[in-house]
Amino acid sequence: MSLEEKVALVTGASQGIGRAIAIALAKQGASVALAARNESKLTEVKSEIEAADGTAATFALDVASEDSIKAGAKAAIAHFGKVDILVNNAGITKDTLALRMKLADFEAVLRTNLTGSFLLTQAVISSMMKARWGRIINITSVVGETGAAGQANYAASKAGMIGLTKSLAREFASRGITVNAVAPGFIQTAMTDVLTDEQKSGILTQIPLARYGSDTDIAAAVAFLASDDAGYITGHTLDVNGGMYMG
């Protein structure tokens, strides 16, 4: 699954799933544009990739800001000359029950998770269309398929990403560009570390494989969808959830 001579832009690449994805794509030979708000953490990921003889560069990018998205995408294309692979991974949560949820928190999650993915796609798609080859991979979530109490905003944003994926797949297919989504289940990250032991035990009872996933599980799925081996797959949501949801 060589990605030699390809350029990948990964958002939220400073930690967790985004970091693992960036490292996995670099191992396959892609040059990686690392994008996030935390530049110091991005520099650490860049150093890790370069220590393994990979190629990476960092770009400050806030997916909640249209201006930041445009500037970051422009800088990445200016640096590498193109973007072949876009991984829309950056996202936030602002959990609470629907009756207590503030409009600002509902809109902030949708703007970051969903609108940001749409705007970044717009910002880099011309590079892929010119090459008549491209991969857009949206990181959604199992809760976008099942719903989740206390996460009306997050679930709505992730369900929206699935609809966005299917629509863009239809629009860009004639240009040799595939658009797919990866839907993680419960993955061992900083987000799950804050859960209580009782909450973690309850979640595990819902997972047939009886374990949390790892960030490398998600990265492997993304690396596959980015490769030529997945060239006949588009508009698909790949569930990586240990059997928690089988749609």
* CATH first level: Alpha Beta
Which architecture name does CATH use? 3-Layer(aba) Sandwich
Integer average pLDDT: 96
Computed over alpha carbons, the radius of gyration is 17 Å
Helix content: 40-55%
Output the structural class. alpha/beta
* Full CATH superfamily name: NAD(P)-binding Rossmann-like Domain
Write a brief caption for the model:
With 247 residues, the protein is of the alpha/beta class. 48% of the residues lie in helices and 16% in strands.
Notes on the structure:
The protein is an alpha/beta fold and 247 residues long. The chain has a single domain (7-235), classed as NAD(P)-binding Rossmann-like Domain (Rossmann fold). Helices cover 48% and strands 16% of the residues. The protein contains 9 helices and 7 strands. It has a 7-stranded parallel β-sheet, sandwiched between helices. The chain starts with 6 loop residues before the first strand and ends in a 7-residue tail after the last strand.
